[in-house]
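[job 0412] stage=fold_complex status=start
inputs:
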Amino acid sequence: MEKFTTHTGVGVPLRRSNVDTDQIIPAVYLKRVTRTGFEDALFAAWRGDSSFVLNQDAYRSGTVLVAGPDFGTGSSREHAVWALKDYGFRVVLASRFADIFRGNSGKQGLLAGQVAQEDIELLWKVLENKPGTEVTVNLVERTATADDVTVRFHVDDYTRWRLMEGLDDIGLTLQHEEEITAFEQDRAAWRPKTLPAKHLPPVDIEAARPV
Amino acid sequence: MAGTLAEKVWDAHLVRRGSDGAPDLLYIDLHLIHEVTSPQAFEGLRLAGRRLRRPDLTIATEDHNTPTLDIDQPIADLTSRTQIDTLRNNAAEFGVRIHSLGDADQGIVHQVGPQLGLTMPGLTVVCGDSHTSTHGAFGGLAFGIGTSEVEHVMATQTLPLAPFRTMAITVNGDLPPGTTSKDIILAIIAKIGTGGGQGYVLEYRGEAIRKLSMEARMTICNMSIEAGARAGMIAPDETTFEYIKGRPHAPEGADWDAAVEYWKTLRSDDDAEFDTEVVLEADDLEPFVTWGTNPGQGLPLSADVPVPEDIADENERVAAENAIRYMGLTAGAPLRSVAIDTVFIGSCTNGRIEDLRSVAKVVRGKKKADSLRVLVVPASARVRLQAEAEGLDKIFLDFGAEWRNAGCSMCLGMNPDQLAPGERSASTSNRNFEGRQGKGGRTHLVSPLVAAATAIRGTLSSLSDLDLPDDVDITSFDGSPLAPLDPNVMLQV
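[job 0412] stage=fold_complex status=done
writing structure:
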C-alpha cells in the first residue's frame, strides 16, 4: 500500500447527506471479478445528470471529496472504496461515516477524515465560490486546507499510523500466528465446523490447489 | 465485572488485546461467502501465495446473482455467470464447501447458516454482506465486512477490530394484531435514524422481543445495519435452543449439553452498563411503511406523506424534498392512497418459511389486484421445498403470484428481477435506496402482512383494511422450525 502523509488536489463539494454505497456504486457494477477499473461506475446514477458536480469541468479532476453527513451507509461493498480510488479520490471528508465504509477505506489507503459539520460548510463555501480550488490534506497534522480555510479532521491513531506507513493488515496479523494457533487449540467441541457436511451424502472435499 | 452480552462474546474471542491504539484481534468462528464480495479476496490470496487457513470454518453459497427462473439453464447474464463460475472455481481450488444453484441448501447466505444449524449463540460470524447482522438473533456477534476483511479472515481466521459502544433497545409489551417484528425494526430505525446506531452493537431485549420466534428475531437483527449499527444481538433462550436442536450441524450428546450450559450464561448482566438505552412500547405500534429513500424515512401506515415545509431541520427537509420527488409522491397525501405496481415477498429480511406462511394465511382463496404483479421468492431452496410440502406454492399460484426459486432477487436487482424506471414496489426487503431494486424504481419497505394486504387491494394496506374471517389466525406465527428434509431431496427443475 502506498504511504500517505500529505495530499493536494481539487476539492469536490458533494452537498448530499446519507450518500449510501448504492449511490456510490450501484449493484449492477458489482458483477465484475477484478479489483480495479471501477471509475466509470462511481456515482453512476448521477453521472448522467449534467448538473452533477463531477460533470462540471472545474471538479472533474477532483481528488478530495467533501460530502454531507452519514457518507457510505448501507451495503458493505468495498467496491465503493475501489470506485472512489479508481476515479482518483484519495480523501473523503464528512462529518459522519458509516462504520463499514470507514473500515474499508483505511484498508485501501483512502483517507476518510471526520470533520465537524460547520467546517464542512466552510469548505463547501470555498469550493463552490472558487470551483477548482485545491485542498491540501495533511495526515501528520490532521488538517485540511482550502484557500484561507484550514479545518481539523479526525482519524483514529491506528488507521493514521497504518496509512502513513503503508502497512498491509494481513501481514501485520500474521506476525501473531502463534497466538492464533494457540487460541485454536482451546476451541470448544460444540463450536461448528462446516466440514464434513453433515446432512448430505458424505463427499470428501479437497483442495485442488496444494497448500 | 458486569458485562453486556456483546462484551462477553467479544472477550471469548480475544486472540490478542490491542495496545497503543491498535485494535483487538478477534477469532472468527464462521465465515460465510458468496459470489459478489469474494472473487477479489480469493485473488488476493492467490497473488500473495497465501492459503485459506480454515476451510472447515468457511461455507459458500450462490445468492446475489442467481436467477429465480429457469435455474436449469445457463445464466443468461454473462457477468453474473462469470461471477458464479468464479466462486465455483475458487471453492474447488481452495477446498470450500459450496451450495450451488440446484442444491437444496442453496439460498441467501443468511438463511443457509441458520437452517444448517451452523449459526449458534456465542459465535463470531462474518460475511462480506452487511446483513450478516441477521445471525446476531442467536446471541452471537455477527457483522458484515468488506472484501479486504474477507481476505483477512480467509488468510488468518481473525479480524482486527476496534472496540464498539453498546446500545440497549428495550421493546416492552405486546405487538398488536396485524403487526410484526418488521414493524418493530422499522419503527426503531425511524426513531434513532439511519446513523443512530453508528459505532454501536445493538442489543434488543424486553418482553416483546422474548415472545418473538427465532425467524422474527432474525428480521430485527437483519436490519440493524439500516440503523447504522454493524451488529444487533438478542440473548439466547429456550426459543433459540429449540430452533437449533436437531439441525444438521447442531451439537449432539455431551457437546449439546456443554453448549446449552454455556449459552445460558450469554446474557447481559443485570447491572451491566450500556452506553445508550432506547425504549419502545410495542403496544403503540402500527404497521409501518417507508415513504422515502432511506429506511429511516418511515411512518405508520395511517399517516400521510410528510410535508417538507413542516420539517424544521434543513438537512432533513432537503432530504425529504428529494425523496418525495424521487418517489413520485404528493406531500400530505395519505400513505394508504399510494398505488403499487409490484409486491415483492422475499429477501434475507422476510423470505423465511414463517413469512411465507403468514402471507399464505392472508391471501388463501383470494385473487391479487389486477393492477399489480406479485413475486414470492423463498430465501433458500430448502424454504421453497418446505413451502411446497405445506402446499403454500399452490395458494400463491391460485392468488395470481409468481412462485420463484431462491435468492436475493429483487431486494437488490442484481439478477433479472428488477423494477422498471418509475415502477413502485411494496417490498418485504430491507433497503429503499434510490435505484436499489432497479434504475428509477421506487421502493416502500413493508412487513409480509402489509405486503399481502397490499397485493389484495392494490394500494398500501394493512390487515385492518381486509374483511378477514375470524378463523384466520394471522398473528400467531406458530414458529415451527424448518423440518429437516430428506437429505437426498434435490430441486425438481
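[job 0412] summary: Residues 106 and 158 of chain A are 10 Å apart (CA to CA).
[job 0412] exit 0
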